Amino acid sequence: MTASREIRLAARPVGEPAPQHFELVETTVPEPEEGQIVVRNTWMSVDPYMRERMDDVESYLPPFQLGAPMDGSAVGEVVASRSAGVPVGATVVHFLGWREYAVMDAAAATVVDTALAPAEAYLGALGTTGLTAYAALTEVAPVRQGDVVLVSAAAGAVGSIAGQLARKLGATRVIGSAGGPLKARKLVEEFGYDAAIDYRAGSLAAQLAEAAPDGVDVYVDHVGGDHLVAAIDALRHGGRIALVGAISTYNATSPVPGPSNLFSLAAKDANLRGMLINSYFHLFPEWIGKAAGWLADGSLHTELTVAEGIAQAPAAFLDMMRGGNVGKMLVRL
């Protein structure tokens, strides 16, 4: 039988996760049953939402189980198949990451076209990462011609795409917030932002007032906390906020208070709307049709931060949670 390795949840963290909360385990790959496939994973994704799944609480996805392999988005090559619809050699995306080999029902995998884009792109710009930016700026907090748009975690997986997309959708000024001078420089030089806020360099509110003295129309929130407060203060009449994430709160050990200025949204006739990406999967064909062309002609710039090997997956996850990535954080298996 084929040997494989996988990452299991060894203990539930209280506060910030650490290496001891993960366990690397050697295992063997079972033979596929009728209708199943075996996939040799080549890339896997680590994402902020996984931190919430480390806690034993009810959410839109079930929590990771102690002593069981973790899961998440991955892409790989089919090496064995008992399904007529998914042949050996096909490249598929699926949700059994955090392991070198995965056995699954063929219906749980989606065949992707690597002639259109590299396999790893289907975990980034052509995956739920890119779709999140697209849904946020077209459905949740739609950009209108002439808007000023603010994006937090702007050098991250979704944010690095969102800034460029806002421009394509008609924004006249796009402002990004990120941590550190390197990321701030990349926002302007490589990811299409007009102005960058380094939230580590001083008052976030003061920097935002300088970058957008007349306020903002759209805010894509990945951070929560002080970023959300500052964005609400700067929001213009009729402004829109997409609540995509709140990474500043994910390691909290007690309930986090909401923004103190929340009710000011009423006087601004503004909209603050959460989004769950599963609700926007119907936009995938539309998004891939646009984004694949932009990737091909170079008008959509993406970056990857890559860790090598399954053993480095926990470190990649922890690094991503601390903001160590530019663009999408992936593990090459």
From TrEMBL:
<dbReference type="GO" id="GO:0016628">
    <property type="term" value="F:oxidoreductase activity, acting on the CH-CH group of donors, NAD or NADP as acceptor"/>
</dbReference>
<dbReference type="InterPro" id="IPR013149">
    <property type="entry name" value="ADH-like_C"/>
</dbReference>
<dbReference type="InterPro" id="IPR045010">
    <property type="entry name" value="MDR_fam"/>
</dbReference>
<dbReference type="Pfam" id="PF16884">
    <property type="entry name" value="ADH_N_2"/>
</dbReference>
<feature type="domain" description="Enoyl reductase (ER)">
    <location>
        <begin position="15"/>
        <end position="331"/>
    </location>
</feature>
<keyword id="KW-0560">Oxidoreductase</keyword>
<dbReference type="InterPro" id="IPR041694">
    <property type="entry name" value="ADH_N_2"/>
</dbReference>
<dbReference type="InterPro" id="IPR020843">
    <property type="entry name" value="ER"/>
</dbReference>
<dbReference type="InterPro" id="IPR011032">
    <property type="entry name" value="GroES-like_sf"/>
</dbReference>
<protein>
    <recommendedName>
        <fullName>Enoyl reductase (ER) domain-containing protein</fullName>
    </recommendedName>
</protein>
<dbReference type="InterPro" id="IPR036291">
    <property type="entry name" value="NAD(P)-bd_dom_sf"/>
</dbReference>
<dbReference type="Pfam" id="PF00107">
    <property type="entry name" value="ADH_zinc_N"/>
</dbReference>
